[in-house]
Each structure stands twice: as structure tokens, then as C-alpha cells.
Amino acid sequence: MNRVLLATATFLALAAAHGCVGTPGRRIVANLEVGMLDLASATRTGWEVDVTQAALLVSAVRTRDVNRPPAVAFMQALVLAPHAFAHGGHGESDTTVLASWVGSEVLVLGEGPSSMVLEGRAGTTDRGALVLGGVVGAGDERAAALHGLPLWVEGTATQGEMVVRFAGGIPLPEAETERLVEGIEMAGDIDDGVTLHLDIDLGVAFDAVHFERLVAGDDGVAPITEGTQAALALRIGLGDLSAYVATVTAAPQPAP
Amino acid sequence: MKMLRLNTVLLTLGVAMGLASCGESASTGSLTFYASGEEAAEGGYPAGDIAFADGWTIEFDHVMVAIGDVVLGEDEIAGDVMIVDLHNGRTELFTEEMLAAQRYAIGYTLAVPTASAFPQGPVDAAAQARMIAAGASLYIEGTAMHPTHGEYTFEIALPRAVVASACEQADGTLGVVVPESGNATGEITIHLDHLFFDSATAEEPNLRFEAWAAAAGEDRHITMDDLASQDLTDLIGIDGEPLMAGGTLVAYEPPATGLPSMDLEAFVVAQAITVPHWTGEGHCNYE
Q1: Three-state secondary-structure class, residue A82
Q2: Domains held by chain A: number
Q3: Is B28 on the interface with A (CB under 8 A)?
């Protein structure tokens, strides 16, 4: 009887608190694949773009918990360390990260997706974020493809009779908040063994580039350097959410 | 018997702790709401150490916001939409009495007003009519001046509602604490400088106006439609050439969540969504 009462007291206290706190999900390990494509070729500036070489450095992928109980937010703000909301509610800090990968990965066009590990809690996600740039991992052989920048591109742009061969890259700010792409649709259930696949369509990033303003060098190649309209447009284009397509694939079923 | 008493105490304590964690309280206090656009709404820019990087100064004629759906905890305590003109100074909105003394979550809405919206404090009727006609939850009229480029007038209309929820104090604590037998104050604070930022992501963005002025027609009056003519990837200056500052192209950095279109109107709308704050520097979630 005493044990029953004690258990009841404990249960009631936990149940009452549960109404305010919610239940965190179980820890999981999932697969993450991130690849780079060049699908969009026609720009709104009237150019057909063919990207022949490209490399992009990425340093984090996060999935957002779609079922964050409001009471958890309240208790976190009330009891736990205070968190700052980014202006406009654009920061991830106003949501709960369900699962994430943090590291350094150089994506190279044509080499297929890179495979990483996504760790966190089981749950349902609807959107996520990608952090561009970062610090290249020591000894990463693919770093040469970046030419010392977080994004490097080479290719040809054509508009009627005009043909512009281009090559160059852009720097990104040091602050992570300034190289974050957030709100990428990635709907699905995150659990052990699932695979989150994220494709980056680099072609979208060229959408606003005025290639006619690039000036070719002696080798006939027009450099894209910081301060050019092309670099500015690429930088803004990388933030276009339509360049990011994510799918969540269930874990393969074990053989019977 | 002794064990039974202990268990009774434990049972009572358990339930009490559970309830306490939800914030129940018996004593009461009151809470007074204000709205403010701070020094800038009254005196324009420069304001204190906030000034435009490209040499412009701003004076406001009207800084009007429509406020509705004020939420305290889980209860809506003010549903009717009221319009205030913050150019006329800090305005008291209302006082809520007999509130249980405890911490409350705070939320409110910048609402798109209809004809039923009522003015709170001194509000020019003609300006209120223009705000309602524009379907704007935030409506601002003003004049910008530059020693070289002269004067331009502008009209900013945020054509959507903004729901601010889970507002924090500047120190990161949630909402507001209503003290026992006392009065707490809270303020819906409008940060006008966000409208003129050149970055939605930088910690310390610059305030700029030339891209706005260059979007004006011959009437030198800038509307939201005019701002749509400025492509963020190819900003044009008043001289018709690419907009430069310090020898480099001026760039407006969009929010991490992107923009529906890469133009200055979309950027300003996105920035306008971030102007409501809580009691000075406190942030909210915005939808």
C-alpha cells in the first residue's frame, strides 16, 4: 500500500509536470547524403549556363522538430538558459533541432553525394537548415577544388552569339548566421537508419548573374571575383531555397 | 500511520509541485501595456548613435501600427484592433487588473485594420484612413533628406499581419512577471531602424537609403511598388549606375529563409516583420 501511495505521488508529480514539459524523443543515428547538381541552366538574365566544375564547402545540416510542444518552449525559456531569437524569427533558435550533422564536407560537382551521419532524436521534421562555408577539414584532398574559397565554379554562359567562359569563387562571411540557408523543405520521419538526401542545384545560384559584365582575361576566361555583380548575385543566389531539394527515405527493412 | 502521513505529504507535495510547475498562483497584480517607436519615431534619424551610412537623414510624419490579439499566457486579453501613431510618443494601450501574480508568456499581433479599428491616443483621421485603405498593419510616412540628393518623401505599408509570440525581455527571460499587489508594465516596441537595414543576417547591419531614393519616380515619392523595381542582385543608384559605396557594390543580404522575390520591396517587407519587439530590446517569434 505504501509503495502504491509513493508510486502514485511520483506519478502525479510527473504527470502534472509532463503537461508542462513534454517528452523528449529517443536518440537516433541516421544517414545524411548531400550532393551538388547543375540542373537549372537558363537564367532570368537571359543566359544558358553550363557549369563544368564546381566545389562547395558545407559545415552543418539541421532538421527541425515539427512537433515542438509549446510548453517545452515555455519551460526552456523560463528554466533553462535563455536563448536569443533571431530577428524575423528566421533563426533556428526559435525551434528545436531534431537531428543534425556538424563537420566539414567539400562537395564536388560530378562526384556524387557525400555521406555523413545525422544524429539526434526520433521525430518528424518539416524543414531544415544548411550551413554553407566553414573551415576545411585537415587533409581533405578535395579542398584543392575550392581554390581557397567556400564556393568555386567554372563553366560557360551563352546568350545568342555571346559566349562567356568564366571561373571564380566567392568568399562567405565568418559568422554562421550570415551563411545559413534556413527553411529548406525536408518533410519526413527521422529515425534510426533513415536517409536524408539533400541536393543542391547550383544552377539556381546563377539566376541573376549578368555575364555580359564580366571581363575576360588574356586566357579568354572571365574571372568571378569579389566585388563583381556576378559574385554578389551568386552569393544571394545561394540563399534561394529553390536550389535545395531534400527527401527522407525510410530505413531498409531487414530480410525476413 | 506514520508512514501513511509521510505518503500523504508526498502525495500532496507531488501534486503541488506539478501544479506549481505550470505557474498557478493565488495572489494578484496588474499589467499596463504601452506602445512605443522609441526616440526615432518622434525625432527621426540620426537617433542617438544610429545614423545612415550613406549620409541620409529621416523625419517621420506618421508611424502607425495596428495592434490586436494581445495574448497573456494562453488568454487573449485584447482582441479589438487599435491604431496608434507612435510619432506622437509612447502611448498607453490598456491596463489589465486582477491578474494572478506570476510570469506570463506574451504575444500580440500587428493586425491589418478594418474600419472598425479604433484610434488609441492622438491619431490623424486622414492618415488612419490611408492606413486602412492600404491594408497595412504598419504604415509610415516620412521625408528623407541628403545634402547632395535633396528631399524625397516615402510611404511604407506592411500589407500583412505579423503575429509576435513567446516574446522575451531583453535579458532573455520570457514575457512579463506580474508582481503580487503591484503593477507591471510591458511595451510593444517598434524598431524602425530595421526597415532601413542592408542585411537581414548581419549582427551590425548598416542603415542605407540611396537604393530607396533611386527607386522613386520623378515625383520623388517612394512607395512599396517603387521599391519592387530595385533588384537586390543589381541595385541601381540615383545616378542610374550600379549602386556603390566605398568602391564596392552595395549588397543587401536577404534573410536566411530567402525572399519571395529578390527585390527591395520583398526585403523591406521581410524587415518590417521584424520591427515589433517587447519592452525595448526583447525579441519574439514572428509569423
Answers
A1: coil
A2: 1
A3: no
Is the distance from CB of A43 to CB of A207 less than 8 angstroms? yes
Chain B partners of A17 at a C-beta cutoff of 8 Å? 17-18, 21
Domain around A147: 26-67+94-249
Residue found by looking up cell 566545389 in the block = A55
Number of A to B CB contacts under 8 A, please give it. 150
Residue A221 lies in a domain: yes
Q: How confident is the model at residue A40 (pLDDT cuts 50, 70, 90)?
A: confident
Domain chopping of chain B, boundaries: 28-286
Task: List all residues 6 or more positions away from B249 whose beta carbon is below 8 Å from its beta carbon.
Answer: A227, A228, A229, A232, B235, B242, B243
pLDDT, tens only, A107-118: 999 999 999 999
DSSP state of B179: P
pTM of the model as a whole:
0.83
Phi, psi (deg, nearest 5) at residue B27:
-75, 165
Q: Does the residue A50 lie in any domain?
A: yes
ipTM of the complex model: 0.79
Tell if the CB–CB gap between B274 and A236 is shorter than 8 Å.
Answer: no
pLDDT digits (tens, 9 = 90+) for B87-110: 999 999 999 999 999 999 999 999
The count of C-alpha atoms lying within 13 angstroms of the C-alpha of B49, restricted to the half-sphere facing its C-beta, is 1
Distant-in-sequence, close-in-space partners of A100: CB < 8 Å, separation ≥ 6: A60, A61, A62, A63, A118, A119, A120
B131-152: average pLDDT: 98
Q: Judge whether A105 lies within some domain.
A: yes
Q: Is residue A75 part of a domain?
A: no
Chain A, window 136-195: residues with a beta carbon less than 8 angstroms from a chain B beta carbon: 173, 175, 177-178, 180-183
